[in-house]
Model the fold of this input.
Amino acid sequence: MTEKQEKILNAALELFAEEGYGSTSTSKIAKKAGVSEGLIFRHFTNKEGLLEAISKEGESRLKVLFANIVMESDPQEVINKTFRIASEIAMDSEQSHFWKLQYKLKWETELYDEKKMEPIRNALTTAFEKLGYQNPEQEADILLLLLDGLATRYFLSDNFDMENMIEFLLIKYQE
Amino acid sequence: MTEKQEKILNAALELFAEEGYGSTSTSKIAKKAGVSEGLIFRHFTNKEGLLEAISKEGESRLKVLFANIVMESDPQEVINKTFRIASEIAMDSEQSHFWKLQYKLKWETELYDEKKMEPIRNALTTAFEKLGYQNPEQEADILLLLLDGLATRYFLSDNFDMENMIEFLLIKYQE
Amino acid sequence: MTEKQEKILNAALELFAEEGYGSTSTSKIAKKAGVSEGLIFRHFTNKEGLLEAISKEGESRLKVLFANIVMESDPQEVINKTFRIASEIAMDSEQSHFWKLQYKLKWETELYDEKKMEPIRNALTTAFEKLGYQNPEQEADILLLLLDGLATRYFLSDNFDMENMIEFLLIKYQE
Amino acid sequence: MTEKQEKILNAALELFAEEGYGSTSTSKIAKKAGVSEGLIFRHFTNKEGLLEAISKEGESRLKVLFANIVMESDPQEVINKTFRIASEIAMDSEQSHFWKLQYKLKWETELYDEKKMEPIRNALTTAFEKLGYQNPEQEADILLLLLDGLATRYFLSDNFDMENMIEFLLIKYQE
DNA sequence: AATGAATGAGCCTTCATTCAT
DNA sequence: AATGAATGAAGGCTCATTCAT
Done:
């Protein structure tokens, strides 16, 4: 990956996350990346190709993030780590961009890729099982619901106190 | 409101909800409504005017929906009704469109209008208080988070069993 | 001519004069006249029809204006009166509108109707002849040129002192 | 300036001059220039940008034209040259287009830029002074009036004998 | 690899005009 | 006579994409 390719990718990520995929023009991306518009197409074929490249890069990020949870054997820790992921993302501005984009895209393209979440869902199910919850599967689902809710609020609400809320949830899930 | 005006509004609602505001062209709306494109502008001035008209109509809907909850005096029933709203919306396809649009718009425009939710947040807080929860405010927030999560999953996930999940949540929130 | 017809005509005159024929929309005229847009077409068939109606009304005005000059027997007075016309028009705001429109239209439609000016040209030619000028025809032409120049400056230049200039011309043409 | 850019500029100049700025569509310009419509905007941003580009080019032309007059020391020659400019413009069809546009624009935008004429007005004033005229300033103004009149007639009247008229004026201004 | 010129389709909007009432 | 709904064509402009260099 050349330097210019990365510049394009970064510009695209930021713009897509900020203004949405559909509302970001390739010319704006080129300008922000300091690159000729044609070059985008030379390297990524398509506007869609650009998106795919970003997504691909993101998927590996996801895997790293999830691996940490899935590997965990202590059930309580599985839950804790899941919440802490959200917290960590919120802190890192670059990661924040990336995840905001993920959510924006979900709504723009109406693709909620369940498969991606399957590993954590399973990890959480087993965790709740081990902890003796009655309906571990549904409990896992609820926790995932909370995660989506947190993302919605964090990215769209101006004055949402993420840290505090996660703190509270962490306690609530402790017996 | 003439017949054609309503046709336009309905077509717009559906298309905005399905493809997003920015990605829906006025010509597509006109075609779907069986109307000349110019008529849209005669009646609604703008593409944005169209959106406002839809939103205005929606806000009154919101009020009706919320009034039912806010009036409720039985705290447990406040919580139950809040969940059931989600369930009801999911059943009514026309309402469904409208609410999907609301969420899409949130992400497209990055405006999460907190004020709109304030009445229920308050109602929920009082309800949790009466029921003797330790942190009623945060409990209300969590329930709202769950609602956002439910919306995200319901509108974006192909095979999400809303009914079932709400059933489960209803029980979980019963003591 | 009904009241509404006149309102339309007046609104059109003013708008055409101020913003030009092409740049004035029939809807703007209707709004200014306090009348439905359809009525314009009921009465004047066309946007062009509107213009014709205005022009026709103007032609009679022209005739009245010119009659005064053509009838004059004293040659010096013919010249004086010609200049004073310009002065008078400049004073009367309604007439001013009308004549501004005439000039605007000349440039917009590229029609400089020579025939309309023929009577004064003749009157001026005879006047210069009687006064013993060598080339009465060309002198008449020059005076007309000055009139066009005056109109150009008066209507387009912010700080043009029409009165003063005419005063000076009047003296210059006195022997 | 690429070849196509110039083609666009020329097409625009001619069409603006012939049909007016407001009445000339960018698509017509593109067609006449043998170019895609989008290219106009790539190079000139705006329809207005096109006009500015033309005007800018014209202003330098103006300077060259005026320099010749302003530099002249012989007062009589200053006057002669001023008239001859008009004559020359009338002969050169490309220049003719440009000046016609200038006048059309004056009437379309109602902007009579006095500053542009200031240099010649001054040159003429000094010339009339040197020649012993009583009111040199007003004499200069009158000559400018005649120029505006000439332009009006030349561009709008079908059968106006410019050459002849200028010949006559030249003699009239000779003592 | 990289640029910048060039394109064609589509977008939102305006406008003159027609029609039913 | 008068209105207001409705239309279809055109207008300025943006955008993703291609191509020659």
Notes: Chain B has a mean pLDDT of 94. Chains B and D do not touch (no CB pair under 8 Å). The CA atoms of residues 7 and 33 of chain B lie 5 Å apart.
